[in-house]
Amino acid sequence: MKKTPMEEWIIKRTGISPANPKELETYQFKKIVETLNYTKKNSAFYQKQLEGIDPEQIKSWEDFKRLPFTSAEDIKNEPFKFLCVPQSRIDRIVTLNTSGTSGNKKRIFFTDTDLQKTVDFFDYGMRSLIGSSDRVMVLLPGQAYGTIGNLLKKALDRTKTTCVVYGLLTDLDAVEKIIVAKKINCIVGIPIQVLYLSRMKQDGFKCIEKVLLSTDYVPQAMVAELNQKFGCQVFNHYGMTEMGYGGGVECQALNGYHLREGDLYFEIIDPVYGEPVADGVYGEIVFTSFDREAMPLIRYRTGDIGAFSQATCQCGTFLRTMKKVEGRLKNRIHLEDGICVDLKALEEILLAIEDLMDYQLIVSDKHSLKIDVSFYNEEPSAENENRVKMMVQEYFDKNCELPIQVEVAKNQLQKPDQLVNSMVKRRIVDLRREKRDE
Predict the structure, then answer these.
(1) Confidence band of 363 (pLDDT split at 50, 70, 90)
(2) Is the pLDDT of residue 101 over 50?
(3) HSE value, Cβ hemisphere, 13 Å, CA-based, for 81
(4) What is the spatial distance between Cα 429 and Cα 250, in angstroms, rounded to a whole number?
(5) Nearest Cα to 240, choosing from 328, 180, 349, 143?
(6) Contact (Cβ atoms closer than 8 angstroms) between residue 106 and residue 112
(7) How far, in Å, CA of 433 to CA of 438, rounded?
(8) What are 25-84's pLDDT values in tens digits?
(9) Which pLDDT band holds residue 96 (cuts at 50, 70, 90)?
(10) pLDDT at residue 399, as a whole number
C-alpha cells in the first residue's frame, strides 16, 4: 500500500521535516496568528468579531480555542463583510443554495490565487487513487471558470491524466457512450448520482475500477454495493465550498481522510458546549483557513459530524486521519430528550434497496415519520412501498423507545432528471422546525 501523496505535498508546502507532527503544529499555529492579523486588518466582520483581541497575544492552542466561532448564519447575513480584498480582485463567487425556503444565501469569494491552491490540493489528492494511465470522468459542474470540474481538470492536466468533464449527470445514454468510447475507468461524482448511473447502466459501469465520491455523505450501503457488484474501489473526499472545495481525501487504506493540513486547521468540538473532544469521539467539525486572500474563515462551524482517528493509518503517514463524516447535525432530528432520528441510520437501510431511486424523509411530530419514495421500476409500487415501511418500522421498533408510526407513499412528482441534475443534498424535512422558523 502506498503512502498518501498528501504527505509529500504538505511537507513540500510547509517546509517542515518529514514525519514531524510537532513541526506541522508549529507551522499551523504560526499561520493561524498570521490569519488573525490579516483578517483584523482587512475584514469588517472579523474586525468586529475579534474586537479587543490582540493576535500577537495568542500564545497557545488554549488561547486560540477561546476565540469565538464563525457560523453559516454569519456568512448568510453579511457575506461582503468577510471580504479581505477589493471586489475587483474577486475571480469567483459561489452562491450556495441552502435547504431553507427563504432568507439570505451564503456567498463564498475566491481570488485566482485561492483557486490555484485548490488545484494544488486536487493534484495531490487525486494521486491517492489514480495514475497517469487512468482515464477519469468528472460528473460535477465544470464548464465555468473556477468550478469544481474545471479545477479538477487543471489538476489532472499536470500529471497528463486523461480527464473528461461531463458536468452533472443529465443524460445516462450519453455518459455511457463516453465511458465506453474513452475507456473511462475512474469516475468522480455525487454519491446518489453515481449510484443511479451504476444501477441504470450496469453494462457500461463494468469497466469502472475506481470511484471518488464527493459533495455529500456516503452511506456504507452504497460503498458495499459498488464493491460487490463491480469490484470498484470507492474513495471518499471530504470538502465544502467554504474550505476552498477540498478538505481531505482517503488513501488506499480507505479508512478515513488525510487532511489538507498545510492550508486548514481542523478541530472537533462538542456541538452543544463548543469544547474540544478527545480523538475517537464524534462531534462537530470546525476549521480555520490559512493564506486565503479573499475570504479567510476562523473557527468555522461546518455542521458536519466527524472524529479524529486514534489509530495510525495503515499507509504509514504521520498525518492525522479523520474518520469518515457521519452526516450533518441538521439531519439528526430530536424527538424527545435523548431520542433522535438520524438520516445516516435510515439511509443505510433505504439505499440497500436496489429498486429505490430516491426518497424524502419528513418528520411532522415526535411520533410519526413519512417517507416519500420513488422507484426505478414503477410496478409493483405497493409491494415496494410495503417493503420500505416494514424495514424502517423494524428499525424503530428495535432502536427507539418512542412509538414511531412510519408512513410510506410514492412520490408522484419525482422524476429521474430531478434526481440526477441536482446539487441539493439529501436531508430530513422537520416540519416542526420549519413552523418555528416562520
Answers:
(1) confident
(2) no
(3) 13
(4) 30
(5) 328
(6) no
(7) 9
(8) 999 999 999 999 999 999 999 999 999 999 999 999 999 999 999 999 999 999 999 999
(9) confident
(10) 82
Residue ranges of E strands in 4-117: 92-96, 106-110
Q: What is the pTM of this model?
A: 0.92
Question: Interior CA angle at 355 toward 353 and 361, to 5°?
Answer: 65
Instruction: Name every residue whose Cβ is closer than 8 Å to that of residue 334 and which is 6 or more positions away in sequence.
Output: 340
Please name the residue that has the C-alpha cell 517542515. 16
CA separation for the pair 311, 140 (Å, rounded):
33
d(CA 323, CA 94): 28
Q: Would strands 186-189 and 210-213 be described as parallel, antiparallel, or unpaired?
A: parallel
89 secondary structure, DSSP code: G
Rounded CA separation 136/149 (Å): 11
- Nearest 5°: the CA angle 295, 29, 74 is 30
- Give the whole-angstrom CA distance, residue 358 versus residue 374: 5
Alpha carbons 13 and 164: distance in angstroms, whole number: 28
- Bridge partners for 341 per DSSP: 333
Instruction: Return the bridge partners of 211, or none.
Output: 187, 234
Of 93, 87, 90, which Cα lies nearest the Cα of 105? 93
Q: Given a cut of 90, is residue 368 above it in pLDDT? A: no
pLDDT at residue 416 greater than cutoff 60:
no
User: Which residue in this structure is represented by grid cell 450533518?
Assistant: 328
Nearest to 273 by CA among 301, 298, 247, 296: 301
Instruction: Choose the weakest-confidence range: 93-107, 177-191, 298-312.
Output: 93-107
Which residues are within 8 A (CB) of 175 and not within 5 positions of it... i.e. 6 or more apart?
A: 137, 139, 166, 169, 197, 201, 204
pLDDT in tens, 32-42: 999 999 999 99
Cell, residue 48: 468586529
175 Ramachandran zone, left/alpha/beta (phi>0; psi -120 to 50): alpha
- Chain centroid to CA 381: 33
